[in-house]
Fold:
Amino acid sequence: MSFHCIVCIKQVPHPGHFSKINLDPVTGAIRRAGIPSVLNPLDKNVIEEALCIRERFSGKVTAITMGPPQAREVLEEAYALGADEGVLLCDLTLAGADSLATAYTLAKGIQKIGKYDLVLCGNESIDGATQQVGPQLAELLGIPHVTHVVEVNWLNEREAVVKRAIEYGYLKVKVKMPAVMTVVKSINTCRLPSVLDIMGAAGKEVQKWGCCDINGATECVGLPGSPTRVIGIVQVESKRKREMLKGSEEEMAKSAVKRLREYGVI
Amino acid sequence: MAQQGEVWIFAEQRDGNLMTVSLELLNKGKELAGQLSTPLAAVLLGEQVDDLAQQLVGYGAQKVYALENKKLKFYQSGAYARLIAELIGTHRPELFLLGATMIGMDLAPRVAAKVKTGLTAHCSDLYLEEMQGQKKLIAAVPGWGGNFVVKIACPKATPQMATVRSGVFEKPAKMQSGNGQIVKIAAAITSEDELAETVEMVESQPTGLKLEDADIVVGGGWGFQSVGGFRLAEELAGTLGGATAGSRPAVDAGWVKEDRMIGSSGKTIAPKLFISAGASGAMHFTTGFSKAKVIVAIDQNPKAPIFEVADIGLVGDLGKIIPCFLQELRKEKSGV
Structure:
């Protein structure tokens, strides 16, 4: 038996530079020039979960991402972490996609990859954070989905019982493969890649597919395939006092505590 | 002229109780339905939902689509999405609003993909605006780099869908006698629906201070990287008798658990005092505590947008400022 796990990963702006991101005042598009990019932090746990499954059932792990040419960096990182194959969906026509157009593109890419048993995604990315791509991908692939997955108990290669978090508790869901699961941070602890893996990843090929390669309909991808539209940006006026304290750390702390007492909140 | 489609809200029930966010949506839905001159309807699924349907009418629903089957007792991702999509196909609602709960966020995107429409996540406001002669739903979502909201519309496809966190809209008052129509539907379940099947629901109240109930909350962000983790935030919260919370980067770093995440995809809180430490202030985060009475911000970048939304700002190294803060608070406690 060989189990094929596909992991959907994403390149995102580095969380330490979030304050430098701004929006184009006309189009509403995210402007992130000069901001370093990283693998979405949760995606390390996604890859880790796939590696655990490979150890259990044997088989392979394919990482797939959609993005500009530099998004191949996250596939290289996936190789270093232990993925066997990497696919980059990259085409100018794919730009401006909302969650539905993204899910469509990923579904087309996954269908081109061929047979698979499980698609794993992060529950949400650190930037867009809509949580929508996983369930939409499952719908477009015509397979079941489970989100917010905190624990997977395999009954066999075709079936698992998973715990998925809800507010103050969990649901126990019995799910048949193939399926889409979106996982949360607490599902596992990531191992560190070995030096050999990192070195081995360096020269590895990444498959790069455009819209035609995946047989994507141009009206379903990118901006044309996105039913939602950013129509503007509104600045919100801050009603806060915005008092900046001055002095050394001790002095600032002293004034802050004094103020908080005056406000009656401590 | 074709009649305007209805305004729908998803009435989420767990163990026979309606979620508060669903009632909040009824309130907003009523306003929007009034402006569109169309009925407000709730979509309710469960095992036996007569009581809940009556409650929804009492809270202002003019119509309740009540889908019953013993297999709908728990949330079922396949069956719920298919049944709702079929109902949408039959009745063609104009708007469909869902609570951004951990179940609503699972259901809404699958439904949207089934009926090929647009969905906006975690909205901070909803209103109608005229677009090409038609009143369209504008969903406001937090933007990047400070105090911006992004306006998102779904100009062509229907229903226009959005998810909204609990606490964004007010809960409506319960009326003495509601006047609404309950449309009961016996729902059939298919074998395909059961490829993913919820077999059990376990609910447990959290131990310790609930984040929503805490008067004082210390929320930390990525900046704690520089001081090697979250210990100082915990110490500060402990000294103040408050709770800790975190931004998405802090959760992803493993310092705080998901259920303590603040922001557009986490919780919305309104404590007396919120201290933000080491978070730059992306609106994804700040929208989660914008209703706090007093906000203190600590960050090393004087230009960080967090200072725009704070009452008191302290610029500097967390590793130095928080210990000074602690020292000052302890002095006070011991009356020195």
Chain B has two domains: 7-195, 211-333. The radius of gyration of chain B is 22 Å. The first strand of chain B starts at residue 7 and ends at 11.
